[in-house]
Amino acid sequence: MAKLKDHLGRPVVAVTGIGVVTSLGIGKADNWAALTAGKSGIHPITRFPVDQLNTRVSGMVDFLPSSSKGASALTYELAETAAREAVAEAGIDAENFGGPLFLASPPVELDWHDRLALYKGGDRENASDRILEVARGLNSSDMFDSAQFGTIADRLADAFGTTGLPITLSTACASGATAIQLGVEAIRRGECERALSIGADGSATAEALIRFSLLSALSTSNDVPEKTSKPFSKDRDGFVLAEGSAALVLESLESALARGATVLGILRGCGEKADDFHRTRSKPDGSPAIAAVKAALADAGLSEDEIDYINAHGTSTPENDKMEHMSLSTVFGERISQIPISSNKSMIGHTLSAAGAIEAAFSLMTMREGVIPPTINYDNPDPAIALDVVPNRKREAKVGTVLSNSFGFGGQNTCLVMAREPV
């Protein structure tokens, strides 16, 4: 019989439901088929004019009804769609989840259609006076609520019947993994038997594109969109802005087994490390990333030799990929060249707040299916990054443990260790 407590005497945390939406499609089945086929979801931007922009491609999710209604509406629909798939797979009442909600989402601001409505409304000659006049006369709180950071989580909590105050967090590109970590920790502390952790991001707006372009963070290789994202390649030139979501139903193993749920995987360990080196740049010595990886392994009670596969952060930026290689080489030593390491971002782009959750979902599926998704567009290897990146084609392999990395702007670093089966 599987042990119900881990090496530190805490409840073992199982995954009983997974939901995914990316530019590759809605649901685990379509995403997994495309991912393992090496298909890219990167495409030309059509949501807004890009004639004067250096970057004209993205991994936007353009096929949901709310894709034209602004970042807040799309982020909510992405989160809800992934959560419904996960809760259904877990076999839990979709309107009475009975556990807390942890949502990773982007910082929210007024969408442009709301800003323009304020600007154009009213009778005053001065624009600022018109805005104040319209704002005072609003009979609905919808516009106000849409710009509040916790609104999306509040709506999700009402829709799914989660318990307690829903938590919204934003830790840059580590957000999705952090949402999972919070769910794991709540179960370990005995605060709940199950938790719903979601990472969702529908904020690939014109403003976001311009902001990241000003940071020189985005790829400008627009000619062949599906080849734009090329993690660990010598000619990588930046990440591709993208949207998506993933939801995990986390549950104590004891609870899952008691109700006959299918266990899809185990969350063995979580590691987190932050630093204040720079608002966007990674610390040159990689020490925060190294510490996050080591903390995740220690939390899982595993040694470096017990990791079978690494789902890389792998953004396709010159600096991040170099730092991730250096960090992993420091932790795993010479063995790093023998561990398969691939980047899902080569196909779906960088989904920002959702990335850590999406990659955790794909990591769990990698173990269950015995197939490692490739790193596509690996046509020009970087001799300074000697890794087995599972180049261009999927690989069948028995994978029992996975390390999933999320290294974000502002020194936010979170790593997750997952296992296929309970101990």
From TrEMBL:
> What are the protein's UniProt keywords?
Transferase
Q: Name one GO biological process term.
A: fatty acid biosynthetic process
Which ranges carry the Ketosynthase family 3 (KS3) domain?
Answer: 10-420
Instruction: Tell me one GO molecular function of this protein.
Output: 3-oxoacyl-[acyl-carrier-protein] synthase activity
Transferase among keywords: yes
- Annotated Pfam families: ketoacyl-synt, Ketoacyl-synt_C
What cellular-component terms does GO give this entry? cytosol
Q: Which pathway is this protein assigned to?
A: Lipid metabolism; fatty acid biosynthesis
Kindly give the PANTHER family that the UniProt entry links to this protein: 3-OXOACYL-[ACYL-CARRIER-PROTEIN] SYNTHASE, MITOCHONDRIAL, POLYKETIDE SYNTHASE-RELATED
- To which protein family does this belong? Belongs to the thiolase-like superfamily. Beta-ketoacyl-ACP synthases family.
Q: What is this protein called?
A: Beta-ketoacyl-ACP synthase II
